[in-house]
UniProtKB/TrEMBL annotation:
Coiled coil: none annotated. This is Glucokinase. Signal peptide: none annotated. InterPro entries: ATPase_NBD (IPR043129), ROK (IPR000600). GO terms for molecular function: kinase activity. The keyword Kinase applies. It comes from the Bacteria. The keyword Kinase applies. Belongs to the ROK (NagC/XylR) family. SUPFAM superfamilies: Actin-like ATPase domain (SSF53067). It comes from Micromonospora rhizosphaerae.
Length: 330
């Protein structure tokens, strides 16, 4: 006699878009394997100050390269401000995509995306990142996880067993740490691209025509520039101090950090850790602080997961087979 036959659902690849402030990426995602289908990724630049027509054309141009199955559900990760339920852009005064303000992007995409989609599902890019890391990255196997993205500003998402938590007493308003204050001022006045650049310029006083971006400031810190090191330490210690109480309240077991600034993990991990430990709690003493395991793919994977709907047959309880070398308990 043979044993019972396990019947597994096989899904078609899920088409996804990640729309950032400077680029658009399209890909097909194998939801069962939790990976981007090789050879399907398309990434193109988008000018933040482009016209609405140019932005839409760029998005559709990248999407058109996908062989999306007919009637697919598309997952679309996009930063705010955005009306995610209605698919309407609300960008205004945020130095990106102002021309899209009030545009019904959902209507445009469902009419013009390849394969005549049955549905388009929008979600915040930080939410997509956290979901991607939970399904196939550094947060896999954790019941209560928090993801933070460090780029132009600070994005965040709180997950309980893979579900987004954006209200209640255990999370910041809407689950967004950028709405929190540090030392009486908005967090992004201390932790953001503009804040770090401004603080370094104020202290180091370079020549008027010299404008250093965060990557260059990080390079100076590695080379022994004490001002650069101090600026980086202060900013990311502030991040740890600000989010620490919320991580403790949420009973998070892992904090996953992604975004462009996470590439300087050698500089930012220690001050984040030290900031977190300013609050002495058992929760934070056991918290795993880690760099993203899927820095390029997490938002794509998360968008696919979000759009796919019922994935209850997938086993997401086990930890990933390959440990992340930068993972560290506090």
């Amino acid at each position: 006699m043979t044993g019972p036959v396990e019947i597994r659902r096989t899904r078609q690849p899920a088409p996804v878009l990640e729309i950032g402030g400077t680029h658009v990426t399209a890909a097909l995602v194998d939801v069962d394997a939790r990976r981007v289908v090789p050879g399907t990724r398309c990434r193109q630049p988008i000018r933040a100050d482009a016209s609405a027509e140019e932005i839409v054309d760029r998005i559709l141009g990248c999407a058109s390269r996908l062989e999306a199955p007919p009637g697919s559900r598309w997952g679309i990760a996009i930063p705010g401000p955005f009306d995610y339920a209605r698919g309407i852009a609300l960008f205004e005064g945020v130095a990106k995509f102002d021309a899209l303000y009030g545009v019904d992007l959902g209507k445009i995409l469902i009419e013009r995306l390849p394969g005549r989609p049955s549905e388009v599902s929008f979600l915040n890019d930080a939410n997509a990142f956290a979901l991607g890391e939970w399904t196939a990255g550094a947060a896999r196997g954790h019941d209560r996880a928090v993801g933070i993205t460090l780029g132009t500003g600070v994005g965040s998402a709180f997950l309980a067993q893979g579900s987004l938590v954006d209200d209640g007493p255990d999370v910041p308003p809407q689950g967004w740490v950028h709405l929190l204050n540090f030392a009486g001022h908005p967090l992004e006045d201390t932790v953001s691209r503009r804040a770090i650049m401004s603080r370094y310029a104020d202290i180091a006083k370079p020549a008027p025509d010299v404008i250093l971006d965060v990557r260059e400031i990080a390079g100076k810190a590695r080379a022994g520039d004490l001002v650069a090191r101090r600026v980086m330490d202060d900013a990311f210690s502030a991040l740890g101090q600000t989010v620490g109480p919320w991580l403790a309240r949420f009973h998070a077991t892992v904090l996953v950090v992604g975004g462009s600034m996470a590439a300087s993990w050698d500089l930012i991990a220690r001050p984040i850790q030290e900031g977190l430990l300013r609050m002495e709690t058992e929760v934070l003493s056991r918290l795993v602080l880690t760099q993203a395991r899927q820095p390029e793919d997490a938002a794509l994977l998360g968008a696919a997961w979000y759009a796919a709907g019922d994935l209850s047959d997938l086993d997401l309880t086990a930890s990933p087979a390959q440990a992340l070398t930068t993972r560290r308990p506090l």
